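I would like you to help me understand the sequence and structure tokens below and explain how sequence relates to structure.
___
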Amino acid sequence: MRNIRLKIALLAVLMAITSGLLAVYGNQSIAHEPGRILVLPPSGAAEAIDLNRYLQRLVTDREADTPFDVVQIDEIEFAPVYQTPGPGYTDRTIWYRTPVRIVNQADRLGSSSFIDIGQVYLNDIALSILSEDGRRIIWYERVGDRVQTARNEVHGLSHVAEWPKLALGNYWLVIGVKTTSAHVLEAELLPDTLLITKSGSESFIKGASLGVLIVAFGLYFTFGLLSGDRSVIWYAGYVFSLFLIYFGITGYAQLIFKPVWALASDFVTGTGTALALGSSIMMWSYITRLDQTNRWLFRFMSVYSVLAIAGLVAATSDLYILYAKLFFVPEVILLAVLLINLVYRGFHQQQYLQTLFMMIALGIPTIGTMAHLMLLMGQLPVNEFTTSIFSTSAVIQLVMVAMAMAYRTYGLINRRVDALATSQRANQLASEQRTFITMLSHEFRTPLAIIQRSAEILGLHLQKEPEAVLNRLSTIRSNAGQLSGLVDAFLTKETLDSATFGTTREAVAIDAFLGDLIARRHREVPGQNISLIKCDTAIVEIDRILMERAMLNLIENARKYAPGAAVWISAEREANGYVYIRVVDEGPGIAADDLQNVLHAFYRGKDATKTQGVGLGLHLTNRIIEAHDGSLSVSVGEEGGTTILIKLPYDRDKTVLRANENRTRSLTGYPEPPRNGDPA
């Protein structure tokens, strides 16, 4: 399986590189058909005329600097614009021409006509009408998104110039286009009434479409951020890129920003295109779960997407031509690779219905994008199908992906509802458990009090008994008191309702505390080899009962898992305000696989099956240390043995005072007071 994924990824890389090279260095074929003559009345067109059906484009490398040069070139060097591939991306001026004949047509008179030129992103369009012999310019006009217009001139969504009234005779219409974008020329000759009607209807449709796109972007981007779903975020980015592209090619960018910045239309359209290239790849990579199924290919897609989006910096320069040649065809190849990967995964996992839906949602836009990019690259002819397929496929993609996102959102909401119901049920069970444990703690206190009181009474009546008997009674009283304190600490309602438990702290000298604890342990378990090897003076604020339980848990763990091994304890005070307590045993140590889990509740290592326990000792000890603003870590030596390191904060002022008192006693010879763990 891994080899198959690697092969798919390598295939994607090779196809992307090869297609990029072909796009840069590939040659175009040249076609030729005799030109048609545009016949008009003197006032211009009385109905809409598609000039692409009449215009011929210069397809050779012949140098032509002016319209005069274009008229003199032989017809064999021209090819029709309609139904033939365009020049794609080039920094040369592309020349078009068609013969025009003005005749009397009494039944086809109009008031005035306008020539409407697209695409809107074309930078500089020079319109000329020359005499039949090509030696005299009758009319000249310049339009384009980089051509500055007069302040009193009316701006529109497209490049429009008024057609001149011509005398009867023969003329040449010559158009020269220079742009950093794709050379896709669409020209119409319209009477004024049709131009007004077309502008009004198209402006409404274009404005509504832009509104839908920007609202959709806001909704999906917000939902993506809230849900953390990266596919939704990238889909929002793709929708925003379509908004930018549409904002540019509909003419709104030049209408609004051209008076301020002549390059605004190029920047908006180029930025939208770069963002669309990158976001579409990332969107489909996440939708098809490529990040989980083929990490290598996903990384390649990610790098490509970043580079594609970075191309927006070239949107207003001639470098955009090279950018388009390098990235447009690889984009189609990578979308095809994603489609192939989707089909493979769908049939392999037998998710036929979902795969079919995704194939349509990805396949149709891929075909549309392929056709559109090939049109821009000059590999497909300019006609109604190639100029409209991208917008049609984009609408299909938006609808189908919106359906997929709605289904995804529905599933996410359902999972959230299920999680909320599960959480409520868990809270209910936890509440019932807290009630039960609270009742149980009350039942514990009564027998513990009886045991403790009985041991005290026995101690009063058995004062003449041997010391061993009295020590046993003292042990019973001490442990019963500890158990009662633990019940109060762990099984109260306040503790059960919070993530931590409350502590009743007091100032305790850690050296006296540890010394008393080890001495008592020697009395209770005489056979255990445990010693205090070094203990600095430090006053710590601790809950004595809980800290005793934490230390006893560590000592008891050493006894169970390293029976007979020596255990030593030390406490070292550091200048950083912490005292470091080490509990070290010389047993076999903890396995490396278990080391990172030993602090988890109910976890028992692989070698713990021979000993009794439920895996709560270290977990409770860690919780106790954390409740004291400290930390606990576990490590194993190279030759075995386990080291528990406890880090606790100490009171600097009280520690200094206690250390001075100890130093004074040692100098004066006064005996040290009984070691009961108190600082005084």
Notes: The longest helix spans residues 384-461. The CA atoms of residues 442 and 487 lie 9 Å apart. The chain is about 55% helix and 15% strand. The two ends are 72 Å apart (CA to CA).
